[in-house]
């Protein structure tokens, strides 16, 4: 019986990316229920920080030092190492977060090894022939369960479908090296651009205040930003607002944007079409303000306020400021 691998992405500052902590939690629970081992794999110029973080979630972590990952695309560099590791140890399945780097890694490892890929898993169980992967399709209207014809494969885990929970004991970190170098050509990174003044990633926010078509324009996001500031949260948006150029794409939530799971999701002027619902339906509490009582979001919001978003938002902002003033 083989083990389940989690290939972890290094996050900002060299630590573990949150999406990898979530994947590790899911895989640890899956391994425990099936009697398999769970192994984390960290590939980085200095894997120590991320490996130490990952060891709080998994019993065994392999740390591979790869200087090329500093100035080259991580997914291309890491994929070669993962394929090389499989020459000595064949896992029952490989898991990675379904972020941009994780998706690239899954495709590259598939090309190198011939393993199939199942993407954007919302949950994973173990069937008679390997992992049974649940996926959301058609904009969240249907859930499907799929497996691998060969029993083994690569699974990308959708962000925010599980909560990262550390294990009861810290695992061990083992340094690994390979006699055969990585086989993929290195893709040099020529430039890195970070958004000036960017706050914490919206995927990690505990509170999100989002605006949609109903805010009317870029100036309408002033109330959204003020409420987010008063609540200590982040600003989000629907695709309609992003496509109109009112707010950057980095704040878009939904099927073609970010998947979020805040404790509170406050939606202003958002209709709640299925494409947006896919990105925020797992929020702890959903509060919507909309003058259209027939808006789809009224059907699944925990609290729906029928009214003008600017009037209701201003009143809410006044109350919030009075409490903290």
Give a verbal description of the structure.
With 325 residues, the protein is an alpha/beta fold. The chain folds into two domains: 4-175, HUPs (Rossmann fold); 202-324, 3-Layer(aba) Sandwich (Rossmann fold), CATH 3.40.50. Helix content is 29%, strand content 25%. The chain contains nine helices and 14 strands. It has helices at 18-34, 48-54, 74-85, 100-113, 221-231, 239-243, 274-280, 297-300, 309-324; strands at residues 4-8, 38-44, 60-65, 93-97, 116-127, 130-137, 142-146, 153-157, 172-175, 207-211, 234-237, 264-268, 285-290, 303-306. A nine-stranded mixed β-sheet has the order 7-6-5-8-4-1-2-3-9, sandwiched between helices. The protein has a five-stranded parallel β-sheet with strand order 11-10-12-13-14.
Helix fraction bin: 25-40%
What CATH calls the topology of the largest domain is Rossmann fold
Number of domains: 2
Tally of separate helices: 9
Total number of beta strands = 14
Q: Estimate the global geometry from the Cα principal axes.
A: elongated
Average pLDDT confidence is 90
The main sheet comes to:
9 strands, mixed
What percentage of amino acids are in beta strands? 15-25%
Weakly predicted, low-confidence segments: none
Structural class: alpha/beta
H/E series:
EHEHEHEHEEEEEEHEHEHEHEH
Rg estimate, integer Å: 21 Å
What would CATH call the class of the largest domain?
Alpha Beta
CATH-assigned homologous superfamily of the largest domain:
HUPs
């Amino acid at each position: 019986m083989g083990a389940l691998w989690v290939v972890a992405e290094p996050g900002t500052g060299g630590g573990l990316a949150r999406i990898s902590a979530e994947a590790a939690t899911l895989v640890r629970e899956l391994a425990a229920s099936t009697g398999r081992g769970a192994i984390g794999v960290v590939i980085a110029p200095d894997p120590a920080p991320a490996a130490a973080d990952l060891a709080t979630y998994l019993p065994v972590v392999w740390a591979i030092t790869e200087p090329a990952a500093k100035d080259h695309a991580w997914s291309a560099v890491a994929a070669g190492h993962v394929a090389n590791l499989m020459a000595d140890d064949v896992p029952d399945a490989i898991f990675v977060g379904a972020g941009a780097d994780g998706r690239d890694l899954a495709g590259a490892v598939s090309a190198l090894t011939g393993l199939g890929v199942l993407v954007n898993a919302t949950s994973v169980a173990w069937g008679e022939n390997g992992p049974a992967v649940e996926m959301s399709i058609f904009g969240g209207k249907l859930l499907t369960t799929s497996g691998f014809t060969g029993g083994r494969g690569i699974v990308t885990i959708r962000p925010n479908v599980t909560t990262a929970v550390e294990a009861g004991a810290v695992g061990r970190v083992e340094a690994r090296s390979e006699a055969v170098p990585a086989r993929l050509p290195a893709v040099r990174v020529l430039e890195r651009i970070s958004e000036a003044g960017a706050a914490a990633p919206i995927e990690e926010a505990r509170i999100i205040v989002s605006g949609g078509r109903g805010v009317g324009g870029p100036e309408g996001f002033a109330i959204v930003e003020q409420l987010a500031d008063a609540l200590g949260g982040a600003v989000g948006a629907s695709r309609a607002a992003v496509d109109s150029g009112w707010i950057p794409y980095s704040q878009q939530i939904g099927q073609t944007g970010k998947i979020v799971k805040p404790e509170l999701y406050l939606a202003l002027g958002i209709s709640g079409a299925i494409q947006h619902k896919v990105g925020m339906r797992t929020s702890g509490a959903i509060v919507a303000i909309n003058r259209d009582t027939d808006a789809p979001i009224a059907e699944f919001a925990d609290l729906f306020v029928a009214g003008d978003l600017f009037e209701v938002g201003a009143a809410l902002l006044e109350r919030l400021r009075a409490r903290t003033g």
